[in-house]
Amino acid sequence: MKPDIENNNYLWEKEQEIISKLKEKYPEEFIAPKKHDRDLLPHIGIGIESNDLPEGYIKLHPFDFIVEEITKEGEIITADEIEKRENVEDVTGETIFTDMVKIGLSTLDAVKRIAEYLNIDISRVAYAGIKDAGALTAQRISFRKVEKKDVEDINIPKILLKNLRQGKGVVTVGALAGNRFTLFVRTKGRIEENSFVKNLEKIKKEGVFNFYGPQRFGSPRFLSHHFGKLLFQGKPEELVKTILTKDSPFEWPYLAKLREKAKGYYGSWTEMKKILDELPYSFRIERTILESLEKDSANYQKALSTMPDQIDFWAKSYASYLINLILSAIVKDKIEPPKTIPLIISQEKSVLDFYANFLKKEGVENFIQNLRIFPFIKIAKYTELPTKIYPEIHGYKILNEGVAIYFSLPKAAYATTILMFLFNTTSGVPMPEWVKKDYVDTKEASNLGSLANIKNIFAPHLRGDLGLE
């Protein structure tokens, strides 16, 4: 099936050409002003002291950060093997299962592109968990009532679908055991091994506090929890204005300037949209809202409802922010932590009692009522999060230019959380001068195989985009 021309695939391709020309003309406008992850952590509720740890630069290339889903049955969905099993079909089933390998895209964005390509509602594509955008990731997804041949014909940059088979049931949210991470952290020369191993052993023995990492807060602006708070407060009009006009110290200055220019026309929805149309993919959320407001000028709830997945994500981002605040308070006050912490999106009295002080301080006491105007936000009965996580460390290798490390984590735990207790991490641009930019086969360095085949598939789509040479 042919994709609709006005979809994310088309917009992304169109914008790459625009940005390439703009970067030549205004190179300084495409460098994020803040680069160190320690600048970002307080912004997302993480308050931990800086430790005497080696400097580490992460995600120079997406191949430096590999995330492979572990199913409930213990199977690892690999990112490097192109095909690893025969297609076994249950011809009576109406579901197509496949393993999705993607690079430089979030799961939400990848699924949207696939649904658009197939010209189907996004609800017919299911997945167990959201994987990072700035990485090479692999996970299982399923399609309901879609022809297998149509899935086989999908050809979308940065996405590979493999191991197609037909059967019954669907992939459900949360139906995974965890993820295996294979990472390469670039360092300022060869690090001292004894100190690194000492920290590694401490983590294995004592665990680390289960903070939600940056990917939970919406790159590149990292404002998803702010949006979520306004949902909790029942302020759809203020939320729309914040989405459209609030700048961020973490995004490209050029985007911030366009947003500031559009801000001067707030309320004139068509004029705002004309300005943001210059970069149609970066401002795709804003443009969707503006298109709704052009038709129904003051219906902010309706405008927000055009993006159910984003709304649900923002609500969960705010819930994650509250978890980070609680864990930060535990660390600061050095108090004995509970084994688990409940997630706030619940109507259980015990949960509301647990968060009572935070709800009052944040002005979100009536959040259950306020969230109900968006029925697609999932309000659970009771969900809890382990206060600490204990990674299963599989191995590491110290090289002159960095450290290759691979480990597994249970679901709802982040590799960046582990890394913040091993390195003072940095990412993004401008990068430190000491970063060695040579490509490293992370799988090969970890004795887990090779990325050669998958690199050949994805590299043409990354040149000039994510820094791959």
TrEMBL record:
Residues 207-469 form the TRUD domain. This is TRUD domain-containing protein. InterPro entries: PsdUridine_synth_cat_dom_sf, PsdUridine_synth_TruD, PsdUridine_synth_TruD_CS, PsdUridine_synth_TruD_insert, TruD_catalytic. It comes from Candidatus Nomurabacteria bacterium RIFCSPHIGHO2_01_FULL_42_16. Belongs to the pseudouridine synthase TruD family. One of its GO terms (biological process) is pseudouridine synthesis. It holds the Pfam family TruD. The keyword tRNA processing applies. GO terms for molecular function: catalytic activity, acting on RNA; pseudouridine synthase activity; RNA binding. Keywords: Isomerase, tRNA processing.
